[in-house]
Amino acid sequence: MNAPAVDLAVALGPLRLANPILTASGTFGYGLEFAHLADLAALGGIVSKGLSVAPIRGNPPPRVCETRGGMLNSIGLQNIGIERFLAEVLPGLERFPPRVIVNLFGVSVDEYVRLAERVDAVSGVAALELNVSCPNVHSGGLEFGQDPEVLCALVRAVRAATGKPIVVKLSPNVTRPAEIGEAAKVGGADILSAINTLLGMAIDPVTRRPRLATVKGGLSGPAIKPVALRVVFDVARQVGLPVIGIGGIETVDDVLEFLLAGASAVQVGTALFRDPTTASRLVGELAARLAADGVGSVRELVGAVRLPA
Amino acid sequence: MLPSDHAAVVERVVEHPLPYFSLLLDAPPGWAELAAGQFVMVRAGDGLAPFLRRAFSVHDASSSPAGARIELLIKAVGPGTRALAGARPGDRLSVLGPLGHGFSLPAEGPVALVAGGIGSAPLYLLGRRLVERGVRFDLFYGGRGRADLPCLERFAALARRSGGRLVATTEDGSAGERGLVTGPFERSLAAGEFRFFYACGPMGLLARLAALSAAHGVAGEAALETAMGCGFGACLGCAVPRPDGRFALCCQDGPVFPFSEVAW
Ligand SMILES: Cc1cc2nc3c(=O)[nH]c(=O)nc-3n(C[C@H](O)[C@H](O)[C@H](O)COP(=O)(O)OP(=O)(O)OC[C@H]3O[C@@H](n4cnc5c(N)ncnc54)[C@H](O)[C@@H]3O)c2cc1C
Ligand SMILES: Cc1cc2nc3c(=O)[nH]c(=O)nc-3n(C[C@H](O)[C@H](O)[C@H](O)COP(=O)(O)O)c2cc1C
Ligand code: FES
After folding, report:
1. Into which CATH architecture does domain A10-59+77-201+221-301 fall?
2. ipTM here
3. C-beta separation of B17 from B146 below 8 A
4. Apex CA A219: angle with CA A214 and CA A222, to 5°?
5. Widest CA span of chain A, in angstroms?
6. Considering CB atoms only, which of B2, B43, B239 is closest to A63?
7. Is the CB of B226 under 6 A from ligand 1?
């Protein structure tokens, strides 16, 4: 079969991608776990597991549980730290065409700045995604992503530390995500991604115990897609920065919905756990779908939702 | 062997009786050599519930005219396992594997195998591997009642082939010795009958066995079960606490761990 003559390339401000399908932070391991399970080369980009200045050992088990149409997690930001990532993982990822975006978080502005400075000169890093919305750790990013002023100051400090594109990842656990997105824009963000997980909870009715050791955790998967779509729609229209849509994406129809709502690209997360090929497969399916529909460029769809008059 | 996602054909479904059942699946060539203790992640449906894959140990693996055949021994406990119990010959199941590290094989015996209920699943292949190497083993097999000792005769025959024996226990006395499996096992352990032992079962049983391992100075390995998001190292959801305060990943570092490397 010939490749359909469809243009999948997208530009999100300064970040250019061969296609709009990326993998979401924390759902793709460090990337190489998938090298033999999926066609990494097909992807538009890979977002790393959340990385911090020093390694973090994470939360006690149980850390995950299934919910209807999704899952809760409280991994607790376990990661190997930025230095080991750059030394041991990035060289392996650089062998593949997709752009690598590092997902970063810290407990203080200073830590974010140190991370940004560290990756600024690393050629294999295409952009930084700031996790300012992780609901899992008390001392973590929660405050940054919930207060527009705090967030604006954080992004401004990171902006001063790097010339690379900055993606700010928005939390759905606020009343008006677009207001936070606006603050990120003022601080100097290039791109917004949305959404991170929704704070949730599950109880085993037999044992009467919470299913997660931390009691509450982050909800992801198809169950959150309508919420994610609404946030992307609001943020894209109200802030005016390019948006990466995230939340429950599993099928090519899901991708189209996010594009129509205003996303210029998408990240696939939890769906990778049940089918590791989801993201790479969607690249081909998207091209085929656009060709079948006579759409020449994926960019034509961005924000093209037909609203009632 | 690197894991792959295989569209396995269900060759047979055997009820032991329910809630215990076996799925016999075709598998790629090479799977006949799987290490005992390795596992697979199976999709139990395409809908929203069950959503994630379910983890199952490889109960048996052998070569077949088409390549290989694996057997999963499953206890139906919830939506995923109940859906799998409804599989019919000819159905296709998405089976991702082989995953994790299996049991290490001893240079010499005798060794013990300790199974609690459905924890017997990975120990059958282990027993076969031991027989292949000429290592004698005794199998201690405990459950609530006779119905919770699926494949009892098959395990007994395997233990005999190794030169060892099967010791069954039930809490209700419906088969073997009345009581917990740790009773007869500890007596044999204290008598110095084993150089090493292997176990799989509920966490409470494994923790008790870890204490026995330390008390009697006989090392061993346990196959652990944790909640799992992915099974292949991508979600970091399957944390196992280690004695040094850090966490191992059950799916990658395990599911088999030396007793001494887990903070029970
Ligand atoms: C490495 C590994 C190997 C396994 N091997 C086997 C096997 O060979 N045969 C077999 O029958 N089962 C095995 N299990 C357990 C099996 O994965 C679960 O029983 C199954 O996921 C339950 O799914 P469900 O939808 O039927 O029930 P759910 O609704 O998901 O769970 C029903 C009940 O089982 C408990 N449960 C769920 N998952 C697990 C788990 N992973 N470990 C312990 N309890 C759990 C739940 O807390 C709940 O009380 C294994 C698990 C792991 C991690
Ligand atoms: C197990 C797990 C771990 C995650 N870890 C991170 C993380 O480290 N940093 C981050 O920004 N988001 C993390 N996320 C959130 C995802 O990147 C994504 O925003 C969210 O899961 C919604 O997308 P999905 O429904 O496609 O999974 C994690 C999600 C899951 C399920
Ligand atoms: S189950 Fe996902 S990392 Fe082990």
Report:
1. Alpha-Beta Barrel (3.20)
2. 0.94
3. no
4. 155
5. 56
6. B239
7. yes
